[in-house]
Amino acid sequence: MQKLEIQKLVERITSTQSKPANARVKAITDRVLLDLFLVIDEFDVTPEEFWSTLSYLTELGQSNEYGLLAAGLGIEHYFDVRLDAKEQAVGIEPGGTPRTIEGPLYVAGAPVSIGEARLDTDPDDGEILFMDGRVTDTAGRPIAGATVEVWHANTLGNYSFFDKSQSAFNLRRTIKTDAEGRYRFRSMMPSGYGCPPNGPTQRLLDQLGRHGQRPAHIHFMVSADGYRQLTTQINIDGDAYLHDDFAFATRDGLVPAVTHHTDPAALKDHGVDRPFATIKFDFALPHAVDGVPATLIDRPRAKVG
Ligand code: MBD
Ligand code: FE
Predict the structure, then answer these.
(1) Residue 169 backbone class (left: φ over 0; alpha: ψ -120 to 50; beta: rest)
(2) If pLDDT is split at 50, 70 and 90, which confidence band does 294 have?
(3) Measuring from each residue's beta carbon to the nearest atom of ligand 1, which residues come in under 6 Å?
(4) Atom of ligand 1 lying closest to residue 67 CA
(5) What distances in angstroms separate CA 2 from CA 6, 7, 8, 14, 42, one per listed residue?
């Protein structure tokens, strides 16, 4: 078809209006519709392809995988890049820890403690992990009473709440920094995540010739009064998918060194009976400023308690 004909048809559809519209919703819907008509034309999309796509989207929702696909198509990462650009444009204080995507597996309401926590409630025979560091401003001054929310997968790459075989809030905690701005926790070294192999996200990735794997990582949301909230992750160095993350979340500055300890004295010192790993990582937060989009995204999240 002629492009002009398509435009006229879409125009007839989008000009149908008998009552006040939400101008933004209408403008975006109208544009998406035009782009969709043009795509159908350019690729000569068949009705069979179109209806099977609708079934696909239904299944995507029924499987609660919209968030997973948004990560896998790099859309969530795109919003990070956009926020970075907006911050740069207004000249926000440099030196903050890089942000990276929240992902679809956060759960609000994790147990809160001060200074330190043990994250693993369920038994797991993986490598014991101790992680610690400080929350500071961009000049390295400690922030006491900052909130560090941490969540990660178990050694099978599964997250509590979504994996009903784990107990509530396994590998999820909220730690308030102590008077020196410090946090520390004991946990288990996570494994990388893989999309549910038979789920709709992985099926589309297969069609695109892509894997659905993430390197092992630990998620954080860090906040303190007067500072910009930070959503980020650290990746576990050495993971085969470190720079091949299906969600595009690995960024410079988010791959701290992992130290493995086998020395009996170190084991004794840490109160453990087998080799363990340690990671040190500080989070630096810029001061809050007016007129810049918020960092903490308002989005539907799972909540317990
Ligand atoms: C994850 O653990 C994750 O962090 C993202 C972004 C997507 C899927 C699983
Ligand atoms: Fe994750």
Answers:
(1) left
(2) confident
(3) 68, 71, 101, 103-105, 193, 214, 247, 249
(4) 7
(5) 7, 9, 10, 18, 11
Calculate the alpha carbon distances from 246 to 65, 101, 151, 157, 240 in Å: 14, 12, 19, 14, 12
pLDDT of amino acid 25: 98
User: How many CB atoms are located within 10 Å of the residue 139 CB?
Assistant: 8
Strand-pairing partners, residue 135, are: 283
Whole-number Å distance between alpha carbons of 38 and 11? 13
Atom of ligand 1 nearest to the CA of 247: 6
In whole angstroms, what is the distance from residue 43 CA to residue 65 CA? 26
d(CA 97, CA 282): 8
Per-residue pLDDT, 292: 87
Indicate the Cα dihedral angle 302, 110, 190, 167, nearest 10°: -80
Q: Would you say 88 and 290 are in contact if contact means Cβ atoms under 8 Å apart?
A: no
